[in-house]
Design a protein that fits this description.
The chain has 190 residues and is α+β, with helices and mostly antiparallel strands. The protein has three helices and seven strands; from the N terminus they run H-E-H-E-E-E-E-H-E-E.
Length: 190
């Protein structure tokens, strides 16, 4: 009888070990599914937090050059901008557009404060940052496209100067090499 009890005990122990070995992949799979479902439940919360923090960011123009000048001298301001842009410490890794803002125009519209810079996202306005008015709040005078300098100049004639002009915003979109690809012109009235 002892032989039978001994064999039975051996079979039970061997069966339990074999069952445990065979169950490991099932348990591991079940465990990884549980972790994946836990991550999936947690993920939207993290995304919502990131989205919420992005919503608080506003778009500003980081001014590289700002000067009150005659509108005939804007080309000289561009040359100054090109000299100073390389000296910027907070230049974004990818510069995809440049923004020119014309504001505080005098009564005969010959002089204005001209700001040339690049857009940045920030939660607070820092020194040298000018709040960028969204294009949707202005009147689109020149749609985004490959517009020549002559087309931009002629578009200025479409501005209704009888209304109080708050700002004229030129946006120059750049390609991967930093060359102008397209541009647009928007006017903002008070």
């Amino acid at each position: 009888m002892k032989l039978f009890a001994s064999l039975l005990t051996t079979v039970i122990i061997a069966g339990a070990i074999l069952g445990a070995v065979l169950m490991q992949p099932v348990m591991a799979e079940h465990s990884s599914k549980r972790q994946a479902s836990f991550k999936a439940e947690k993920s939207p919360t993290q995304k919502q937090v990131k989205q919420h923090s992005l919503d608080k960011n506003k778009t500003y123009v980081r001014s590289v050059v700002t000067q009150t000048i005659s509108l005939d001298n804007v080309a000289a301001l561009w040359a100054e901008f090109e000299d100073k842009i390389t000296q910027q410490e907070d230049l974004p890794e990818t510069l995809d557009r440049l923004v020119v803002i014309y504001k505080n125009m005098d009564t005969n519209f010959n002089h204005a404060t001209v700001i040339i810079g690049f857009p940045v996202e920030a939660s607070i306005q820092k020194d040298g940052y000018i709040k960028l008015i969204p294009s949707e709040q202005g009147e689109q005078l020149l749609n985004r496209g490959k517009n020549s300098k002559e087309e931009i100049t002629n578009t200025w004639k479409k501005i209704n100067f009888r209304r109080f002009v708050k700002a004229v915003v030129e946006t120059h979109y750049l390609d991967a090499l930093g060359q102008e690809e397209t541009n647009q012109l928007v006017v903002h009235y008070h």
